[in-house]
Amino acid sequence: MNTKPVITYFSNFWKLNQKEIDFLVERADLRLLKKKAFVLEKGQVCNHFIFVVKGCLKMYKVDDKGRFHNLQFASENNWISDYGSFYNDEPSELFIESLEPTEIIQFEKNNVFELYDNHVVFDRNFRIIIENAFIEQQKRILQTISSTAEERYLYFIKKYPHLLNRISHVQIASYIGVTPEFLSQVRKKMI
After folding, report:
1. Banded model confidence at residue 190, pLDDT cuts 50, 70, 90
2. 115 Rama class: left (phi>0) / alpha (psi -120 to 50) / beta
3. What's the pTM value of the predicted model, to 2 decimals?
4. Cα–Cα distance measured from residue 120 to residue 6, given in angstroms and rounded to the nearest whole number
5. Exposed site from 55, 62, 165, 178, fewest CB < 10 Å?
6. 75 φ, ψ to 5°?
7. How far is the C-alpha of 95 from the C-alpha of 38, rounded, in Å?
8. How many Cβ atoms sit within 10 Å of the Cβ of residue 24?
9. Nearest to residue 116, comparing CAs of 147, 86, 148?
10. Average pLDDT over the chain, rounded to whole?
11. What is the per-residue pLDDT across 17-49, written as a single tens digit (0 to 9) for each?
């Protein structure tokens, strides 16, 4: 199992000793996903923190009219989870799906709590992960209520430059909250 990327990720915050590395590796589950595979579907309780080793996942909601609303993309060295469902043991309103063949490392809820309880370094690391996710969600909310579509697209380009050629414009339009046709108009203006 290729756990080196997640070990490196954690070590970027605090150096891990061999005991901590072994404890982490024992609790890591590697999964290989085909394109369009679900890690989470609406109605399921989210029981994992997911680290992307290779590939890309998206988290989205489908509204009552059948429209897709992308909330997050997670590619290499990023985390994704429905934190509300995870911590509250509630059925999720969200889907997490692979956009391309993807390799992930999952940490089951019980294993996450074991990491918290047995090694303070993981408690601190996961706190940073969750804090960063919260900060990103605040930015998204502020953009949605106070930015133009062009500003949201420019932010997307800045945040996800490595995804521009990997995901469709339909996915990007959903993320910034516009139709694909409107995104085409925004892109033409910027050229």
Report:
1. confident
2. alpha
3. 0.91
4. 17
5. 165
6. -115, -165
7. 7
8. 22
9. 86
10. 93
11. 999 999 999 999 999 999 999 999 999 999 999
CB 91 within 8 A of CB 123: no
* 97: its two tokens: 């799906």
Assess contact for 144 and 150: CB atoms under 8 A: no
Residue pair 164/176 in contact (Cβ under 8 Å)? The answer is no
Helix intervals (H) in the chain: 4-11, 18-26, 83-88, 109-118, 120-146, 149-159, 169-176, 180-190
Q: Find tokens 């085409």 and name the residue.
A: 184
Mapped onto helix, strand or coil, the DSSP state of residue 154 is helix
User: Residue type for 147, please?
Assistant: S
3-class state of residue 47 by DSSP: coil
In this structure, how many other beta carbons lie within 10 angstroms of the beta carbon of residue 183? Answer: 23
Residue pair 10/3 in contact (Cβ under 8 Å)? The answer is no
CA distances from 104 to 29, 77, 114, 159 (A): 8, 10, 20, 21
